[in-house]
Design a protein that fits this description.
two-stranded antiparallel sheet, alpha+beta, 13% strand, Alpha-Beta Plaits, 22% helix, 107 residues
Length: 107
């Protein structure tokens, strides 16, 4: 069972999670991060680090966020690994609690 980044990350893209990942399983897109399910070792370290609570165990992903399980796997194949924390976008806090951001995802 891998961990999954969900909608709350879109346009926030805090990278605190990246710093604690022991296997570098995060991949970076223009305004979203994903977890490569083939690399994730289910250590749970990233969950507590996410300031917007966007990361869930695959079995715990809310029903409204289920599409992100497949999306993480799909995008992880194309996006490059991110292995160091970066500054969040300047407006990340403004986007943190905005719902229904799927249409804003940049691939």
């Amino acid at each position: 069972m891998a961990y999954v980044v969900t909608e709350a990350c879109i346009k926030c893209k805090y990278t605190d999670c990246v710093d604690v990942c022991p296997v570098d399983c995060f991949r970076e897109g223009p305004n979203f991060l994903v977890i490569d399910p083939d690399e994730c070792i289910d250590c749970t370290l990233c969950v507590a680090e996410c300031p917007v609570e966007a990361i869930y165990a695959e079995d715990d992903v809310p029903s409204t966020q289920q599409r992100y399980i497949a999306l993480n796997a799909e995008l992880a194949k194309d996006w490059k690994p991110i292995i160091e924390k970066k500054a969040a976008p300047p407006d990340a806090d403004d986007w943190a609690k905005v719902p229904d951001k799927f249409g804003l995802l940049e691939r």
